[in-house]
Amino acid sequence: MQVSVTSHRDPEPLKFEAFERLAHFVLGLESAPENSELSVALVDTDEMARLNEQYRGIVGPTDVLSFGCDDPCAVAGDEPITLGDVIIAPDVAQAQAADLGTTIEAELNLLLVHGILHLLGYDHESDEDALVMQAREAVVLEAYVAE
Questions:
Q1: Is residue 57 packed enough to be buried (19+ CB in 10 Å), middle (13-18) or exposed (0-12)?
Q2: Rounded to whole angstroms, what are the CA distances from 75 to 85, 104, 115, 128?
Q3: Architecture of the domain spanning 2-146
Q4: pLDDT by residue (tens digit) across 64-87?
Q5: DSSP H or E run through 12
Q6: Global pTM exceeds 0.85
């Protein structure tokens, strides 16, 4: 599985290895195809607000956005299957962590798992779907911490 993490923030104080390690863990736990490809981007608050308004019609920043490929089906040869992109705003995550009384690491981990699960077909459009997704997030994060 291929995971690429990039930053659009300058300077970037976060270490990419933690994002890559967790992303690989989630993809493995969710039985994503071995030749899956995932992109994770870290953006500042202004960029996240722009993306949120452009793609969701909501003014202001959000914490995480997922952009899945239209049809992540198998491709010819050994080309990777592109699952999509997860966009995270660490500054928004930091504010949420403070509000929730948790750590920035825990909040970033949750957002990354949340974003990847969206790409793998989970959503929270209905209350029932939200409960399923939240339960899966908890299972994944608990398994990751126990590893």
A1: exposed
A2: 18, 37, 23, 33
A3: 3-Layer(aba) Sandwich (3.40)
A4: 999 988 665 555 667 778 899 999
A5: none
A6: yes
- 2: closest CA among 47, 41, 42, 33? 33
Tokens of 83: 């699952």
Q: Rounded to an integer, what is the distance from CA 34 to the centroid of its chain?
A: 18
Please report the pLDDT score of residue 12 as a whole number. 81
Phi and psi dihedrals of 142, rounded to 5? -65, -40
Return the domain boundaries, the chain. Answer: 2-146
Residue with tokens 């660490």: 90
Using the CB atoms, write b or e for 39-50: b if 16+ within 10 Å: bbbbbbbebbbe
